[in-house]
Amino acid sequence: MLAPVVAACSHLTPPPPILSLASGGVISGIGKGIISSSLGTMLTNYGLNVTSIKIDPYLNIDAGTFSPYEHGEVFVLDDGGEVDLDLGNYERFLDTDLTRDNNLTTGKIYQKVIEKERRGDYLGKTVQVVPHVTNVIQEWVEQVSRRPLSNGRLADVCIIELGGTIGDIESMPFVEAFRQFQFKVGRENFLLFHVSLVPQPSTTGEQKSKPTQHSVRELRGLGLSPDFIVCRSKTPLQEGLGEKIAMFCHVPSSHVLAVHDLSSIYRVPLLLEQQDLVPMVWKHFELDEALWEPLPPKPLQRWQDLADRYEQLRKTVNIVLVGKYTGLNDAYLSVIKSLQHSCLVAGHKLNLEFVEASQLEDEARDNDPAKFHDAWKTLTQADGILVPGGFGSRGIEGKIAAIKWARTKKVPFFGICLGLQLAVIEFCRNVVGWKGCNSTEVDPECETKVVIDMPELSQTHMGGTMRLGKRRTVFVKRDSVACKLYGEPDFVEERHRHRYEVNPDLVDEIEKHGLRFVGHDIEGKRMEIMELSEKDHPFFLAVQYHPEFLSRPLRPSPPFLGMSLWPLATPCAEWFASACVLPSTRGFT
Ligand SMILES: *[C@@H]1O[C@H](CO)[C@@H](O)[C@H](O)[C@H]1NC(C)=O
Ligand SMILES: *[C@@H]1O[C@H](CO)[C@@H](O)[C@H](O)[C@H]1NC(C)=O
């Protein structure tokens, strides 16, 4: 492998990591993230160490306070950083763990500049966008890209994705910073990908190159010339269009890459591979040709297998996700991805249906009987029911009703975060007999407080805060489904994001009635995993943490794997056997 050669010299004196920058053209949201992370995964498979930075030219400093309905889900990193979906994509494709500093915003940069100004670092001089803000951007990028990766190596390549569209006022300081940066590190250490949409108005069916030409002209006007142009289109690029774009945009025609809509995102790296992307990148960076020698014959074989597997799935598993919707499914993106990963490994085709929790409530029967009926019809046809995390009180009783259905009808159930809390409440109301019990989050004055506020004491902030980031869960009962799914380790480490928890004072009483808390935090106070025993229910499992943040295409999250296998598998032994088809699915560490 060539990694050691490059990384070995990196350890002596860190060379500037190679930067490749993806900037969007025309409109945002055309899959820049997927293209950048595909490039990353390709370079990783060729043995390079890759890190990545996502730049969002907003003034916000932290994504934690965002409404998930406006911006999609909040993704949580090991260090508790709350970021948006794109960093999740990078983690999944690069199979590495990133930190909160891998997400850069205008707000974070300005905060730094203002701190410096207050400290007197600028010696009372006028502080300006150029050079002060642009310098801080460059320093940040250099620092973050020189930090060791989660495998302990230094990065050879840093992929930077600049959010938004070229020409936005917000992204100007970043564009200027990178214009300077290319001279600082040298053109051979800097690579610019420009991702652009090639529209195809249906009237003529002819693909249009003009928008791409315009956006490249704009980019050049700002002092950046793309090395590669990635054309995103619905169908493969039409004859001659690539050459035309190459000619008008001053790049060799081999540097115009075409990425049309594909059957799965696993095909994107393969499509780029067919267009010889990595050798061209290698050449641009003037990496040693000799490094090619020991390459595996097919570096992207694992992706090829995944993509093929995806197209050969036969048995369908119907999973119903009971949540809160506003028409934006991005709010549950990581949960959906995790189900896709685990179904792929399980060999099942995922049919995911959504049910709006509030439509399962008695109130809905009176207000909107048709929707109430449909929601219950979907729910009752599920092979498996999933209740993911969430906040707020709307739909709580509907989710509890869905959990009751799953428990009493022995439908496989998986709950995450709020899903665990509600499963415990449902059990307490209907099995233990505490009719008026509730969570103090939605009903502070309730009769029996089964779920209570248990903030974590923070060293850095006054008082208690949300429990965020990677924490350890210890298996206290080894004869459990969860422990088996994880491959029987002593403990697991997963990411958290919550304030409320099962009231520890009531745990003994609840367990007497048959609910098992099989995983605790290291102090034994916080309930992390609960399940019903296999003799009471085929699969009834819930976790307080968010396993969806650590699921990777080739290494699905174990509880999700259980959820994907169980609904269709008859005897346990059989599904454990099939869970082992890919060695990477066991052994979570
Ligand atoms: C980074 O943080 C900003 C500010 O909170 C947020 O808007 C953005 O979505 C985050 N981006 C990523 C990739 O996490
Ligand atoms: C629990 O709290 C919710 C929200 O306040 C309320 O709608 C519900 O009726 C409560 N349930 C019980 C059993 O008290």
From TrEMBL:
Pathway annotation? Pyrimidine metabolism; CTP biosynthesis via de novo pathway; CTP from UDP: step 2/2
CTP synthase N-terminal domain: residues covered: 22-287
Q: Which GO terms describe its cellular component?
A: cytoophidium; cytoplasm
Q: Could you say which EC number(s) this protein's record lists?
A: 6.3.4.2
**Domain Glutamine amidotransferase intervals:** 330-561
According to UniProt, the reaction catalysed is: UTP + L-glutamine + ATP + H2O = CTP + L-glutamate + ADP + phosphate + 2 H(+)
GO: which molecular function terms?
A: ATP binding; CTP synthase activity; identical protein binding
Enzymatic class: ligase
Xref: Pfam families:
CTP_synth_N (PF06418), GATase (PF00117)
Instruction: Reply yes or no: does the keyword ATP-binding apply.
Output: yes
Which key words tag this protein in UniProt?
ATP-binding, Glutamine amidotransferase, Ligase, Nucleotide-binding, Pyrimidine biosynthesis
Q: Name the source's superkingdom.
A: Eukaryota
The cross-references to InterPro entries, in alphabetical order and at most eight, read:
Class_I_gatase-like (IPR029062), CTP_synthase (IPR004468), CTP_synthase_N (IPR017456), GATASE (IPR017926), GATase1_CTP_Synthase (IPR033828), P-loop_NTPase (IPR027417)
Q: Which BP terms in the Gene Ontology apply to this protein? A: 'de novo' CTP biosynthetic process; CTP biosynthetic process; pyrimidine nucleobase biosynthetic process
**PANTHER family according to UniProt:** CTP SYNTHASE (PTHR11550), CTP SYNTHASE-RELATED (PTHR11550:SF0)
Q: What does this protein do?
A: Catalyzes the ATP-dependent amination of UTP to CTP with either L-glutamine or ammonia as the source of nitrogen.
What family, per the record? Belongs to the CTP synthase family.
Q: What is this protein called?
A: CTP synthase
